[in-house]
Amino acid sequence: MPQLTPDPVDVFAWIDAAERAREEAGLVRTLRPRPSVSPLLDLASNDYLGLSLHPETVRGAQEAAETWGAGATGSRLVTGTTELHTELERELAAFCGFEAALVLSSGYAANLAAVTALSGRGTLVVSDAGNHASIVDGCRLSRAETAVVPHADPDTARKTLAAHEGRALLVSDSVFSVDGDAAPLAEYAAACRDEGAALVVDDAHGLGVLGEGGRGALHAAGLAGAPYVVATLTLSKSLGSQGGAVLGPAKVIRHLVNTARTFIFDTGLAPAAAGAALASLRLLQREPERADRAREVAAQLYGRLTASGLTAARPDAAVVSVRAPSASAALRWAADCREAGLFVGCFRPPSVPDGISRLRLTARADLTGDEIDRAVGTILATAPAGATDGQGR
Fold it and tell me: What order of strands is seen across the sheet that includes strand 229-234?
């Protein structure tokens, strides 16, 4: 007979206290599986151009899966690169105005690849305080000296670069995901040119919305293709698919192929996702007015909500952020909207860098005038007490 041993100590007992603290702070997050067809009006997803369910996008995914199979079958350097991947890379680079592109499994992986492979020990990485978590994690993994500068503060960024001797790069979102405000790209670029630094810009929220025909924030700023500029993208927002990409000079892309761990050691993007992204990209080129419409819808939402007394950040792209009086009020507001048939995002700490909870609305190019009316009416009808005093927390 085997000797019975006492039950082990609960090594995860600390999680109970952490859960209670989250509940008391109103910061519990839960998964809510959505049905394939939802009665809710969607202002929560990042499907800015309304392409995720477009017949051409879906057909692109179907044809790719039928041709290449369900999965990439291996890393990009082994069996995970198909002709479809290289076709997508060529067309992405050409559309956005860069010399070359490299497709990865997610936008998160793209940021990790760009930041870590272009820095390292002895390098200075200057990072905007409002940057996405994937950039923050890239800085942490880079083993470089990282200087976090105040949000959208090019003067401090320039001074920080000037004080460093050796290789340096400045990294920033183009459009910040919390408030939808745009980075001062022209000023950041000037600082990088003057101080001999690289500029790495995450254009996840700019592609498909900003620039001529949705070519992105860097194209709009006249920086696409500059020899010191690298862009990262996601294929999961305006293109309605999945995956990410790094765009830049050809030698930068070759360097990432040989050094970026999230590229070398990760399974390649599934062919269906590559096919869907390529179909959406071609559709956007035929229908560039979708980018203009997304910005127009954002401006309408912002104008009507603020005219009614709510406090919102002026959108520079397709994100409209509306302040809530507290984290618990934001959660209840979002739930009340959902019960009334409107799906909106709810951003609370730690997702918000300033600690102020928000409803986050995403403007979609395919929203009709009636749907905009419905969304505005629902948000106003469910607004909690204190939402109009500008003192959100």
Answer: 100-104, 244-248, 229-234, 198-202, 168-173, 124-128, 145-149
At 101, which helix (H) or strand (E)? strand 100-104
| Separation in Å, CA 195 to CA 43, 135, 162, 212, 262 | 41, 22, 6, 29, 29
Contact predicate 275/65, CB 8 Å: yes
**Helix, coil or strand: residue 388:** coil
Q: What is the pLDDT of residues 183-223, one digit of tens each?
A: 999 999 999 999 999 999 999 999 999 999 999 999 999 99
Dihedral of CA 274/276/277/278: which sign? positive
pTM of the model as a whole: 0.93
Q: Tens digit of pLDDT for each residue in 59-84?
A: 999 999 999 999 999 999 999 999 99
Report d(CA 97, CA 248) in Å as an integer: 9
**pLDDT digits 0-9 by tens, 29-53:** 888 888 888 899 999 999 999 999 9
Residue 236's SS3 state is coil
Give mean pLDDT, residues 121-138.
Answer: 97
- Evaluate whether 293 touches 284 at the Cβ level (below 8 Å): no
Residues belonging to the chain: 393
Rounded Cα gap, residues 28 and 50, in angstroms: 30
391 pLDDT higher than 60: no
What is d(CA 236, CA 106) in angstroms, rounded to the nearest whole number? Answer: 8
Specify whether the CB–CB gap between 252 and 227 falls below 8 A: no
Query: Which residues neighbour 355 within 8 Å (Cβ) at sequence distance 6 or greater?
Result: 349, 393
Whole-angstrom distance between the N-terminal and C-terminal Cα of the chain? 61
Alpha helices in 104-233 (DSSP H): 107-117, 133-141, 154-162, 185-195, 217-220
Q: Would you call 331 helix, strand, or coil by DSSP? A: helix
* Residue 306 Cα distances to 338, 348, 376, angstroms: 21, 21, 10
Query: Residue range 53-57: average pLDDT?
Result: 97
Structure tokens given for 359: 């409803």
250 pLDDT above the threshold of 90: yes
- As a whole number of angstroms, the distance between CA 366 and CA 47 comes to 10
Tokens matching residue 330: 């934001």
Handedness of CA 311, 29, 106, 290 (dihedral sign): negative
